[in-house]
Structure formats: C-alpha cells, structure tokens
C-alpha cells in the first residue's frame, strides 16, 4: 500500500510539473498574442491559464500568478481600447443607418445595405454603452426598413397572383390537350 501511495504521489508530482510547464509556455505565448494585438486568442489563453492554475499546488500557483499579473493589466488595457473602438464604430454605423432612413434607394438595395450594417454591428461585439447604442441602432433599422416592408409585401402578393395565373394557364393547357 505504501508503495502504491509513493507511486501515485510520484505520478501526481510529474503531472503537476507537466501542467506548470504548460502554463509557463503559455505565458510566453500570451505575451506574444498581446504584443501582436491578437486579443481574442490572448483572452482565451488567459482564461485557460486561470482554470489550469486552480489545479496547481500553492508554491507554483503563486509564482505563476505573479508571472501572469503584468499580462492581466495589458490584457485589460487592450479590452478597454477594443470596447472604446467598438463604441466609436457603432456610432458610425448609427450615422450610416440614419442616412439610410432618409435615402431614396430601391427597396432591395436598401434592404441589402441595412443587412450589411447589421452584420457589421454583430461583428463588433460588446462596447461600453452597448445597450443605449443598440436601442438607437435597432429603432433606426426598423425605420429604414419600413419602405422595404411595403415593397416586399407587394412583391409577395404579386408573386402569389402570378402563381395563381400560372396554375390557371397550366390547367387550361392540360384541358386543351
């Protein structure tokens, strides 16, 4: 039993060393991601490291946490800049959507442009004043799309009428044949 216990403790120590090595390597990778401005990868690696640290014994845990601490400040700074930039870009999209509300474009073109602005919005992610901007953007989208609604409704009705006429013609042809 004592031999099994020593073997298990040895295996656990090897496993701990392995995990510590992985975290040390990922800290270097984290620094590289932050330097390159690859925020998404850096955030993912930060989260992974924090979860891994929970499984590491106290001396190594404390040491690695101290190595990660300067990177947290840099990551936070980049996230703040991203949120700020996203807010500014969202304001630009609101201005573009405002322009679409008064622009006289063909409905299909206007609908496509509205969709493109909405897709751009989705790519930006969260920003500092996200809720306020979203409400404004959403209302403008609805206003800009109103003329398109009428067009698409009329087009749908016309297509339904054409289908009925086509069906009648086919029935007449079948009766004639």
Query: Level of helix content?
Result: over 70%
Number of strands: 0
Contiguous uncertain segments of 5+ residues: none
Beginning-to-end CA distance, first to last residue: 94 Å
Report the major sheet. none
**Cα radius of gyration in angstroms:** 30 Å
* Strand residue percentage: under 5%
Round the mean pLDDT to the nearest integer and report it: 88
H and E string: HHHHH
Would you write up a description of this structure?
Helices cover 90% and strands 0% of the residues. The longest helix is centred in the C-terminal third of the chain and has 47 residues, at 130-176. The protein is mostly helical. The mean pLDDT is 88. Helix 1 packs antiparallel against helix 2 and helix 1 (2-36) runs parallel beside helix 3. It starts with a helix and ends with a helix.
Output the keywords.
177 residues; mainly alpha; 90% helix; elongated
Short description:
This protein is an all-alpha fold and 177 residues long. 90% of the residues lie in helices and 0% in strands.
List the helices and strands and how they pair.
Layout: H1 2-36, H2 39-53, H3 58-102, H4 107-124, H5 130-176
